[in-house]
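Late entry, evening session. Most of the bench is empty. Finally got around to the prediction I had been postponing all week. Sequence below, unchanged from the version circulated by S.P.
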Amino acid sequence: MPDRIAYKIDKAAEVIGLSRSTLYADMHAGILPFLKRKRSRRILHSDLVKYALAMKVKVSAEGALKGKKISSSKKERKS
């Protein structure tokens, strides 16, 4: 069980290993769901897990199509 139900953007970025700007862009695009109260945004742990799993599948599929080997330590994202 996670230590938190929801994360601030900074903590979510740290947990998932992506930049804050990537998370904000995906939130704005509707890819990553979030909660908003006044000016504060939070990402639910369950949504962060689903997002991470979806990104892994997407990156792996792109690498397979291009015939490139994808390293699990570093993944390139396209905006």
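Two things to note before I forget:
The longest strand covers residues 40-44.
Confidence is low (pLDDT under 50) at residues 68-75.
Will write this up properly tomorrow.
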